[in-house]
Amino acid sequence: MRRATLAFALSLALAAPAYAAQHAQTTIADTAIARATALRDEALQSDLGWKITESLTTEVGPRLAGSEADARAVEWAKAKFKQLGFDKVYTEPVTFPKWERRSESGAVLGEHAQKLYLAALGGSPGGTVEGEVVRFDGLKALMDAPADSLKGKIAFVDFTMEAKRSGEDYGIGSRVRFMGPSEAGKRGAIGYVMRSAGTDSHRVPHTGGTMFMPGVNPIPSAALSIPDAEQLTRLTALGPTKIRVALDCGFDGTYTSQNVIGEITGTKKPKDVIVIGGHLDSWDLGTGAIDDGVGVGISMAAAALIKPLKPARTIRVVAFANEEAGLYGGRAYAEAHKGEVKQNVLVSESDLGAGHIYGFDAHVADYAKGAASKIAAVLAPLGIEYQPGKGEPESDVGPIAAKGAAWAWLGHDATQYFDLHHTADDTMDKIDPKDLQQNVAAYATYTYLAAEAQGDFGSDPANAHEEHEF
Amino acid sequence: MRRATLAFALSLALAAPAYAAQHAQTTIADTAIARATALRDEALQSDLGWKITESLTTEVGPRLAGSEADARAVEWAKAKFKQLGFDKVYTEPVTFPKWERRSESGAVLGEHAQKLYLAALGGSPGGTVEGEVVRFDGLKALMDAPADSLKGKIAFVDFTMEAKRSGEDYGIGSRVRFMGPSEAGKRGAIGYVMRSAGTDSHRVPHTGGTMFMPGVNPIPSAALSIPDAEQLTRLTALGPTKIRVALDCGFDGTYTSQNVIGEITGTKKPKDVIVIGGHLDSWDLGTGAIDDGVGVGISMAAAALIKPLKPARTIRVVAFANEEAGLYGGRAYAEAHKGEVKQNVLVSESDLGAGHIYGFDAHVADYAKGAASKIAAVLAPLGIEYQPGKGEPESDVGPIAAKGAAWAWLGHDATQYFDLHHTADDTMDKIDPKDLQQNVAAYATYTYLAAEAQGDFGSDPANAHEEHEF
What we know:
The structure is a homodimer. Chain A is of the alpha/beta class. Chain A has two domains: 6-87 and 265-463, Zn peptidases (Aminopeptidase, 3-Layer(aba) Sandwich), CATH 3.40.630.10; 100-251, 3-Layer(bba) Sandwich (Glucose Oxidase, domain 1). Chain A is 33% helix and 24% strand. The first copy, chain A, is built from 13 helices and 14 strands. In chain A, the strands form two sheets. In chain A, strands 1, 2, 3, 4, 5, 6, 7, 8, 9, 10 and 11 form an eleven-stranded mixed β-sheet that branches. Chain A has a three-stranded mixed β-sheet with strand order 13-12-14, covered by helices on one side. In chain A, strand 5 (154-158), helix 6 and strand 6 form a beta-alpha-beta unit. In chain A, helix 2 runs antiparallel to helix 13 (433-452), helix 3 packs across helix 8 (289-306) and helix 10 runs antiparallel to helix 13. The longest helix of chain A is centred in the last third of the chain and has 20 residues, at 433-452. Chain A is elongated. Residues 5-16 of chain A have low confidence and may be disordered. The A-B interface holds A 54, 58-62, 68-69, 72, 108, 111-115, 117, 201-204, 226-227, 230-231, 234-235, 238, 284-287, 423-425, 427-430 and B 54, 58-62, 68-69, 72, 108, 111-115, 117, 201-204, 226-227, 230-231, 234-235, 238, 284-287, 423-425, 427-430.
């Protein structure tokens, strides 16, 4: 998960889609409800989601977009779809600039000399810089700094981010990560460090993508682990503090990866698809278990569990390429399928970990709200509350939703997500098997009912809107 | 904290010291009890222990014995004792072989290629080895392996270690660390990796000292972080697994550091000393907050709080050099003071973190047990239980206790200690300020009462016994 999209959700809530006033109500038959209920209870006992996620994170491990492991992950996904009995397995190309991390180190220099644990931000140039640290308490303080005030200095942006179920404080941290390097560079800084966008207290920095505004000279930019950020705050309070940031990383040409797609072909409406998925790439520090191996595991498992029920519509599971460096897989999917917005009947992605799913929302036409509410009723025994208007399309389905596809949201409890997100600690042991079973049960139930609904959910290119970030 | 000494405590319980049968009872006057009670309650409000520990871990940071930070730590301790108003500040030399960590990396090779997070064990030679992993479920399994059965292989010892208040499972992990490399080397292994001796689930390996038995060819030896050990277990279950372990580290001559000693001179019996302390060195990965900056902070603060009460005996705070690589500071202290065992009236060290102190024990002559029980009564309102026979002399005071000094034990709750011990995560933020206040209150109370006791506690070279490890 890369983006912070709460404002996006807000903007959608304000811009109500222009659905036709008189339209047959979308319904779900009682037989489908009964089958979904049995499926839900069966999925709660299944370890398929665990096994798929364990296989990906163990056998492939970390899979930075464009790395040799990216290609291994694509082969893994194709083989896994086939092994799980998907009817159709294919790929669609996704091309992007390739960024590599080779090595990185940091240190306090001088009388308090000590190592700093840091990680280059994705998109940072390489380079070794040494200079005095200027600490800012938040992004605004940096943006208030005068032009040229950071000449020869290394900017350090500190801030606070609280653990919350919604994960909403990630908006604070991701803004510091996306905007800080450019703002520092514009003011003459030779380097940039930030407190990690996280909520833990371990020596595991949180990487993540950044970018440089046009006309700004890119500067080496890194995230300090949270204890290191606190240490640097204490040290700068004692007096002038010099540090070294040494990053060997950078862009190296372009790379073409693949969105890997597996389908359970619909028995009645094969051209209508319910899209679920996760992203196949991960940052390179951990093994990408919660971000987002488990999204792939949840959606592959949900579809495989649905298959014996012979769903009316096609279930399309997309293992998206390169979400982390800029949503390339999601954008490529939207571009490749922009002529089929109506056939993308309902879309969703699981990209906020494996915490308990506590909320459900579907951004659908008024005539489909009764159907959404029927889905919510089958999800309710899983401890999932129907929260109309609360959700958002997660990462990679944002672009197709922006083209007018109706979307659903199954909201994971993200209280612990930002302890792990984009760190070396994002490993299999952090997933609770019981929560994962609940996640798979929720996705299987929701997806099957969406596939069985009589009538659509309002996907229509007429509902296209601009994509937002932040 | 380096050693696992439970068996040691057991052996002491069996070997009762030969005290004279008829001896005046050691007592503590009511006026001293009253002053100690007030001191205890004052210390509970003091942030002095926090400030000292924060100063050491921030301004010096990690302080591996023999590194440039070792010398800075010695200067820091001398200055801090003076700043706190100690009457006498001096040093005693401690010489040891210097071991350095320069860099280290690990990786799974082949079709599941991925990085492994590991740390060289202290005392390991450098070297880069590649080979197939042979996994052992515990040290015994390795020791059961036939001679030459590991030729050209890398041994991997896995095991389980549970978090317990006593920390006793560290005995399992530290045996794997001390004995594993030699046992692997004897069987022809070219390298050695182990699951970290810890109870956490973070990508922060636990370093710690190892040693090679005479006649065994030293092999590169490292600890994997716990998630990495679990990953390697999953990978070896899939099939033959090759890894690379690349360590740049090793011994480089000898180094002379210092035990730094500060004293509050006794007003009535200045030559009689109550010894408290912690060790000044730390491993290099973290900033040595719980191991053992806080031991130095607790004991310096306790003595400074006692000073206005003008204690009868001298309070001697020892910041021991190089505990981690082999108890060099503790042994040097015992050697330098072996002629003054009787004057080392009662000795203790705080070297098990900053968890709540839950137990008190004093290994003293029968005629002093009434006094020990009076001390226990003043400690009781701090939530400290008197546990005769339960304790042990912590690390650096082990050698002087082995020479016959009476010792006391103030037992920290170690449930979380081995989440952090010897890792990069051993940083200031892991200390609970309230627990630290309780620790300082306990040490101040105990130390003052020991200094005021009328009569001794039975320190006598006649009680000398062999030192044990494990």
